[in-house]
Amino acid sequence: MNRGETVLRLDDVARRYGDLVVVEHIDFTLAAGETAALLGPSGSGKSSLLHIAGLLEQSSAGEVEILGRATSGLNDAERTRIRRDTLGFVYQFHHLLPEFTALGNVALPQLISGINKAKAEKEAKRLLTAMGLGERLNHQPGQLSGGEQQRTAIARALANRPKILLADEPTGNLDPKTSDVVFDALLKLVREEGLSALIATHDQRLAKRMDRVFVIKDQRLVEVKRQDA
């Protein structure tokens, strides 16, 4: 994709659970190489919106387009393939496999995709080194600090070279100083790789560092003017 082309589009998306409306009338586009922050308090619908955008959850209405392809009519296998080949996910908790080293955790998604071990480990080493973990490749998660674990999880999310990164409070479980280190590494690598990223956060200070800022308010998505972010 060329920079500026739309990689993700939400068109009049809604999510309801019976009579409970989580979000509705959501219109959003994300361009290639663009970063966007998604703000809102706990319970505002940020996670649901990310899950819909990432094809982890079906919307109740509307359409999700990824790389120009409508996804509402796809079966589970097709949705899984798009998630595997196009999307990367980072969560508040790292969910690393404790029995694997940092290198092994990052190589694993590539091995599952059919990449040979030598190539997978080479890419894992490159990503971990870019995240400042070149000296921690052979450490297991229990031997890493919280910030190091989360940087490993970010490297893992990028292992299959996704076009879009979706992150749900990726620094929400860290102290402010560690949060800054992790967020610096995340943004640096996203921009170096030319990725698009939609990052949910409650931290307005971090949100201001992204290209655009959105807030969920009264079940709707509103873009925040830069001077108000």
Write structural notes for this entry.
- By secondary structure, this protein is an alpha/beta fold.
- It has one domain: Rossmann fold.
- Helix content is about 35%, strand content about 25%.
- The protein contains seven helices and ten strands.
- It has helices at about 45-55, 75-85, 100-110, 115-130, 145-155, 175-195, 205, and strands at about 5-15, 20-30, 35-40, 60-65, 70, 85-90, 165-170, 195-200, 210-215, 220-225.
- It has a six-stranded mixed beta sheet with strand order 6-7-8-3-9-10.
- Strand 4 (about 60-65) and strand 5 form a beta hairpin.
- Helix 5 (about 145-155) packs parallel to helix 6 (about 175-195).
- The longest helix has 18 residues, at about 175-195.
- It is globular and about 50 Å long.
- It starts with 5 loop residues before the first strand and ends in a 5-residue tail after the last strand.
- The mean pLDDT is about 90.
- GO terms for molecular function: ATP binding; ATP hydrolysis activity; transmembrane transporter activity.
- Pfam families: ABC_tran.
- This is ABC transporter ATP-binding protein.
